[in-house]
Amino acid sequence: MEVFYAPPARRPQLDYSRFVLISRGMESVSIHRPKWLPKGQLAALREAQREAAREWMDRVAVHKQARDTRAKWPTRDTLQKFTKGRYKLHSQTIQMIVQQFLANVEATTERRRNDPASRQWLRYPHREKTFFPLYWPAQAVSYDRCASHLILPMGRGRKSLVFRVALDFEPGAVKLVWKDGYELHIVRGDVVQAEASPGEHRACVDLGEIHQAAVATDTGAALVICGRGMRSHKRLLSKQLGALARKRARCKRGSRRWKKLQRARRKRSLLARRRIRDLRHKGTRKVIDFCVQQKVGTLFIGDPRGVRTLKAGRHHNQRISRWEVGQDMDYLRHKAERASIACSIGNERRTSSRCPQCGHRHRPKGRDWQCKACGFVGHRDVVGAANMHQNAFGVRVTFPARVTYRRAGPMRAARGLNSPAPSLPARRSSPDTGLREGVAPPSPQLLGTSPPQGRASDPRRDAGLPVRRQTLPSAA
Ligand SMILES: [Zn+2]
């Protein structure tokens, strides 16, 4: 669960100076949201998070003092020495916070060393925190399978936190975070890794905003995952949050209506976040499945984050700022590792502006790449992915002859998702009369002489009067 600086597994001949990836290790995490927590427990959780923040701020202060006085930076042992018995938390939780702090410091140092420009703005942990997530390593966590109770200790003499969650796996480390409501991030150790690499082929991925990913292999195949679903969820969310913000601007801060709007805002953004995360996982899963099917053993992911800093007008800036490309790279790396595909990330500069046939350069317009020199036409993102082979592996591949298009996933849940789909009746050659087999359809009859069965009593019929179906007296 710890955040650390992850250097690429293999370094191709590329400029890596701009490369930094902070990620949650290579663990599969299962996210649980307790639907309802009693007031007392909520208060306990808040207090524990405050306590964790106090510890964090103390570590920040110690480290800052060392930096300011140019003294030797504190090591893990010195940092941990000051924590004993000072916080109302489990000893392992306290240690995890120290670990997290050191990991952040290390990542910052690494980034500042590799990328001198980042020294202008990248600072060591300094921000004032009121709340901090709580961590428990695997050995501190216990799970009562009979009662479905996840037990998280809070230290000797204090009540443990107990959550009711049904798990079908043995829980590993647990992180308790607030994301518009409490969430339990539980590491699962039951995810198996493929033993052998799928094959010897190579593939490159071009990540994008309109198309989540475009993959080109050296087997002459290509896959494009459409990202428009995620895009539209995000646009809708932006609009709805805007509308809520306008309403909120007219309320008094802290009033009942203000709180009500805050709840609405939280609910709305949670829903969108879950939907987008789902689509993102489904899209990257399709990329890896495609690679396995094409027997790809080495995958190169182009890092497009250079384009994020460009200013492109307020509409495009909103789209780009909501584009979570770091997540895509993380998910791809994670899923590739599970499939035993060697994965590396590197610069993708100038790959999408070059013609894969004649090398002519120009900035593409629209979704198709049309070469002005040789007349080549191909999918813009596939062009980027195919050209990347030259950068990453030093080999030119032929432009894929066929491109498979896929959506990341369905935009809307099917109706009755949780119930099995109704089985369709077997096809029959006879017309479907809606009657059981062997029952002849009724012969046509004159309306009025024999009204349909099961009707509620009709005063006109009871009186023996002809019933006119079209103009039934409504107020007879
Ligand atoms: Zn050309």
Residues in helix, %: 25-40%
Poorly predicted regions are 1-24, 427-435, 447-457, 470-476
- Distinct small-molecule ligands in the complex: zinc ion
Structural class: alpha+beta
Shape: globular
**Measured on Cα atoms, how large is the radius of gyration?**
30 Å
Mean pLDDT over all positions: 81
Sheet with the most strands: spatial strand order: 14-13-10-11-12-17
Number of helices: 9
Total beta strand runs:
17
SSE succession = EEEHHHEEEEEEEEEHHEHHEEEHEH
Oligomer type: single chain
Strand content: 15-25%
The N- and C-terminal alpha carbons lie at a distance of 75 Å
Q: Describe the sheet with the most strands.
A: 6 strands, mixed
Written account of the structure:
By secondary structure, the protein is of the alpha+beta class. It contains nine helices and 17 strands. The strands form five sheets. It has a six-stranded mixed sheet. Strands 3-9-8-4 form a four-stranded antiparallel sheet. Strands 5-6-7 form a three-stranded antiparallel sheet. Helix 1 (39-68) crosses helix 3 (91-114). The protein is globular. It starts with a strand and ends in a 14-residue tail after the last helix. It binds zinc ion (ZN). Residues 355, 357-358, 360, 371, 373-374, 376 line the site of zinc ion.
Brief digest:
The protein has helices at 39-68, 76-81, 91-114, 228-249, 256-293, 313-321, 325-338, 380-393, 459-462; strands spanning 3-5, 22-24, 28-32, 134-136, 142-144, 149-152, 161-164, 171-178, 182-188, 201-207, 211-217, 221-226, 296-303, 342-347, 368-370, 377-379, 402-407. By secondary structure, the protein is α+β, with helices and mostly antiparallel strands.
